[in-house]
Amino acid sequence: MNNDEFLFHEETPESPVAVGPQVDRPWLILIVDDDPEVHAMTRLVMKKFVYNGRPLQFLSAFSAAEALQMLAKDPGIAMILLDVVMETDDAGLRLVPLIREDLGNSQVRIILRTGQPGQAPEDAVIHAYDINDYKAKTELTAQKLGTATVAALRSYEHITELERSRRGMARIIDAAGSLFTLRAIDRFAQAVLGELAQVLDVAADGFVCVTRGIARNDAQILAASGRYADLAGMPLGYSADPALSAMVMAVLNGRQHHYDDQRLILWLRTADGRDAAACLHVGRPLDGLERKLAELLGTKIAIGFDNLHLYEQVRRSHKAAVIALAGLADYKDPDGGGDHGLRLSRLVTEIAFALRGNAGWDTPIDDEFLDLITMGAMLYDIGMVGVPDRLITKTLPLDDQERQQMEMHCERGAALLEKASRMVEGSNYLSFGAAIARAHHERWDGSGYPRGLAGTAIPAAARIVAVADVYDAMTHRRSWRAAVPHAEALRAIQEGAGTLYDPTVVEAFFQARQARVRPR
Question: By residue range, what is the domain housing residue 203?
Answer without folding.
Answer: 180-300
